[in-house]
Amino acid sequence: MAASRWEMTLLFAALMVTWSSSFNLAPGNATDSGATAKAYFAGGCFWCMEEAFEKVDGVIEAVSGYMGGTVKNPSYEEVSSGRTGHAESVEVRYDPAKVTYTQLLEAFWRNVDPVTPNAQFCDHGTQYRAAIFYQGNEQRRLAEESKRAIEQSKRFAQPIVTEVVAASEFYPAEEYHQDFYKKNPIRYKYYKFSCGRAQRLESLWDKS
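and the corresponding structure tokens:
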């Protein structure tokens, strides 16, 4: 996240109240099957991708972090500089008995701008690129098929630039980034609106 994000959210810091941690937003859904699988995605601000995936039934939790770079254990400051090669990413932990990888791909596409390279909404730079980080041949096949389906739908005049690349090591982000949308709802909502994310998604995908 670029410094501008903090500048925007700091404008609303004084509005933080003690009940913010109990603000009623949809949490991740607990699993009762015992099985857990993982999937990795990048779609700009990881705060927003956490919220999007944790609303999906069968997702246990989404963890903010960094993937796709060359520096071990990068800090937020290093990643946000754009020099480490990482993208702000999420590790989605889910119950495969309740939600499939294909359904996660559908949720991913509806929450990204697939036609803008090295940027998502107001955040610009390679650290905000959209990407599907696949694990193994089956995830790769499904990810490539999902991208091809969107291309063949002719929904967009521009080419689909979202990357489909092999997953590398995932580094969880600092604790203050985790569940930011639940712990700091006022600042989060202000950032999301100011960034134009919801507005752009609606223009790209309608209200589907």
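(Above: one complete record from the training split.) The two ends are 27 Å apart (CA to CA).
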